[in-house]
Amino acid sequence: MKAKKIFTYAFVALMCLALVVGCSPKAPAPDATKAADVIKIGGNFELTGGVAEFGKKGEMGAKLAIKEANAKGGILGKKIEYVGADNKSEASESTLATTKLVTQDKVVGIIGPMTSTNTLAAVQVLNDNKVPLITPTGTNATVTVKADGTLNKWMFRACFIDPFQGEVAANFAIDQLKSTKASIIIDQKSDYAKGLAASFKETFEKAGKQVISTEQYVAGQDKDFRSILTNIKAKNPDVIFVPGYYGEVGLIVKQARDLGMKMAMLGGDGWGDDKLLDIAGKDSLNNTFYVDHVASDDPALAAFAASFKAEYNQDINSFAVLGYDAAKMMIAAIEKAGSTDTAKIQAALETMSGFKGVSGESTIDPKTHNPKKSASIIKFVDGKKVFAARVNPK
Amino acid sequence: MGSAGDLILQQLINGISLGSIYALIALGYTMVYGIIQLINFAHGDVMMVGAYIGWFCTTVLKFSFLPALIVAMFLSAVLGVIIERIAYKPLRNATRLAALITAIGMSFFLEYGGMLIVTPQTRTFPSVFPQTVYTFGNVAFKYGDIVIVITTVILMLLLQFIVKYTKTGKAMRAVSYDKDAANLMGINVNNTISATFALGSALAAAAGVLIGVYFNTIDPLMGIMPGLKAFIAAVLGGIGIIPGAMLGGLAMGLIESIVSGIGYSTWRDAAAFIILIVVLLIKPNGLLGKNIREKV
Questions:
Q1: Other beta carbons less than 10 A from residue B291's beta carbon
Q2: Choosing a second label site near A132 at 20 to 30 A (CA), which of A165, A336, B83, B132?
Q3: Residue A179 sits in the same domain as residue A243
Q4: Is ipTM over 0.90?
Q5: What is the pLDDT of residues A78-107, one digit of tens each?
Q6: Contacts with A, B 178-217, CB within 8 Å
Q7: What CA–CA distance (Å, rounded) separates A244 from A266?
Q8: Residue A338, by phi and psi: left (phi above 0), alpha (psi -120 to 50) or beta?
Q9: Any chain A CB within 8 A of the CB of B122?
Q10: Do residues A235 and A190 share a domain?
Q11: From the CB of residue B126, how many other CB atoms can be counted at a distance below 10 Å?
Q12: Nearest chain B Cα distance for residue A214, angstroms
């Protein structure tokens, strides 16, 4: 019994020693030699695990932005060094990766992670160490503003948050589709759908148009939407906003068309799954549109797509585009701050306006750290997703 | 004026095709209850299995609608018999509560076992019907609506024929009336009960394939809600009474459509369960029930 205890202590002591010995030669070396002539930007990405595809593309985008900046001579007369870390698609690993980047590598800013959960896991470390972070695609509102309304000072994002899609959809309906009467079909179980619906309604009505009816369903249970669609049909709106996920949306679109309803139908990025096409069928999807962060066939992205292809021999997607823009935004902020002082970079990010990324021009709202930026509208044409328009914020 | 009439007519059409499906499932509930007083909660999940078999036949084996329907009905009938033999037969003389809990267990087994085998992802049926839509003025219905109603009517007539005029049907009625007496008269009670499960499961499978084909999507948990609604339909019509299940199913479909139609779409499911409560409070024997079933 006692011998076992002694062994345990000895083992722990040995481990501690190993840790100290293992770290000590590495840590000071790069700081001492390199820190003076390079600026370090960290990347905390999902390189393995469940959403590795998101993280890999995001990192590729970020690395490309840094490479291009270095090719132009770097910033503030120094080269940028990218320091990557893998959060294994797990929140706890994300905290560790952030701690490593901040305390060991002494980065001046971090790009990533791609998901909201992993981004939230980094908040505390960054607040303690006062280092800014830009998440390319973390859309959850609490990433930048806590539930109690206080701002996470060091957190920023390159994407718009979910409810903003409702605003974009409403503006698109008003300006491009010339709609005056809309109906909304909401998944009453989903905060995502409710948020989009609320902001759609607000924007649409503010412009003097009418939301003539609102119907609700429960995702995962309902398959028969004909009754609510029949009601909507009787009211005869010129657009229907359906901010749900592809499973129910597919059925709603198909059943609406079967009932002879030919009006335009609109949705958010919950539509962006290829299953939608299987469920609704390509004919039903004509005259439907959805909002997304990026459309890969947007002509404005052609140049970026080409250089991305040249670098990695892969096609772009929204993760690559927003990873690239997040890194560019960080670089722009460092340049604007004229310093590698993290507090100055934070201030530069907070007051950034008219930043031109490949995904559009964005202005950071200092109160929420959410960018006001353009969004893409994707249109279905005979079963193909086609870029329809870029809608700028008003 | 005309548009209000169209609206009502359209909701009635929606209700009838939905109600036909409920009726098909409700028949299985009611037949099993009639014969062994068991509410077979796994019934909705047998419907799910039927839908998957139909999906397999149409997508992988490229069958057309009718062969797929028949294969699904046959295999589900076999499944129904297996379930009865393995799960319910050993409990034939146990309390009714024990059998009921076993049925719930069987239901979970099918749902989550199904998830394990076919994965929880939603699958889409190919379009086996022409996507023709018929419109009369403002009222529209699909080729699929007609197929649902016709299939349901044919299956119900077939069931009536089997129950009324065949030897098995007579045996079923005898067993349902008095199991022990039927046994004394030389009726093979076990086989008769199996036949009931086979028939009920086949009808459920037909409903599953129709749902799959009509609504295009199937998933391992698709049986839960229609199963519960059909159970309510069976209770509404009078559980244990075959024409009651048909009537109850159609009534349920129509009520749901009307509730959504008058603008209370969020109350649709609530309405179904309120009906259950009201029926149990006011007329526990259902619409077609008579107060003679109590045996002493």
A1: 8
A2: A165
A3: yes
A4: no
A5: 999 999 999 988 889 999 999 999 999 999
A6: 211, 215-217
A7: 10
A8: left
A9: yes
A10: yes
A11: 11
A12: 9
